[in-house]
Write a structure and sequence with these properties.
The chain is α/β, with parallel strands linked by helices. The protein is built from six helices and seven strands; from the N terminus they run βαβαββαββαβαα.
Length: about 200
C-alpha cells in the first residue's frame, strides 16, 4: 500500500461493497457508523439523506488515527414528502408496500466523502421508481421472501421487488444503495485513483 491513503467504506452493507467492486475498488477497511437515523421534525428527504451520509463519514473519521478517504452513503425512500422507514417488521413492510402500490416514489442516496486533508464533500443522487398496483397475492409473495427486512421503503430492488417495478427513471444502482456514476465522479474528482474504465 505504501504511502497511499487508506480508502475506508463507512458502511456495513454488503450491497455497497459489491457495487464498489464494479468500479474496481476494494476498501482497505469497512467500518459501520452507528447513528440515530430518525428524521428531524419537518426534515425533507434530501436533507435527511445528506445529513446521515455526512454524519456517518464524520463519525468514522473521528475514530481513525490516520488520514484516509472515507466514503459514506445513506439511502432514503420518500413518497411525496413522507419518509418511509427501514422496515423491521412485517407490519411495517406491509404499510410501505400499501403506500407504494401503483404510485411513483423517490429513492435518494446521500454520498459523503472525507478526503485525507479533512475536507468533506456531499452529494445527492435521486431516482424515481413506479410500482405496479399490487395485488394481495403479490404482497404476500413478497413478504414471504423476507427481502424487505431492514430495507428503506420495505423492499430491495435487487431481489423479487424488481418484478413489481413498472418503471424506473435514474440510476438503478442508486436504488440498490450506491449510485455508481455519482460515486465514481465524487471519488475521482477528489483525488482517489480509480481504474480508467471502472474495472479491476
Amino acid at each position: 500500500m505504501g504511502d497511499r491513503p487508506l480508502f475506508v467504506l463507512a458502511s456495513a452493507s454488503p450491497r455497497r461493497r459489491e457495487l464498489l467492486a464494479r468500479l474496481g475498488l476494494v476498501p482497505d477497511r469497512v467500518i459501520a457508523a452507528d447513528l440515530d437515523e430518525t428524521p428531524l421534525p419537518g426534515e425533507a428527504p434530501q436533507a435527511l439523506a445528506a445529513r446521515l451520509a455526512a454524519g456517518k463519514a464524520a463519525a468514522v473519521r473521528a475514530g481513525l488515527a490516520e488520514p484516509a478517504f472515507i466514503l459514506a452513503a445513506d439511502t432514503v425512500v420518500a413518497c411525496g414528502t413522507r419518509i418511509l422507514p427501514k422496515a423491521e417488521t412485517e407490519a411495517e413492510a406491509r404499510r410501505c408496500l400499501a403506500l407504494l402500490s401503483g404510485r411513483r416514489h423517490r429513492v435518494l442516496t446521500g454520498l459523503s466523502l472525507i478526503r485525507p486533508d479533512g475536507e468533506q464533500r456531499t452529494r445527492i443522487a435521486v431516482s424515481t421508481v413506479t410500482f405496479k398496483r399490487l395485488e394481495r397475492a403479490e404482497v404476500e409473495w413478497y413478504i414471504a421472501s423476507g427481502e424487505w427486512q431492514g430495507k428503506a421503503g420495505g423492499y430491495a430492488l435487487q431481489g423479487r421487488a424488481e418484478a413489481l417495478v413498472r418503471a424506473l427513471a435514474g440510476s438503478h444502482s442508486n436504488v440498490v444503495g450506491l449510485p455508481l456514476y455519482e460515486t465514481r465522479a465524487l471519488l475521482a474528482g477528489n483525488g482517489l485513483a480509480l481504474p480508467p474504465t471502472g474495472q479491476p
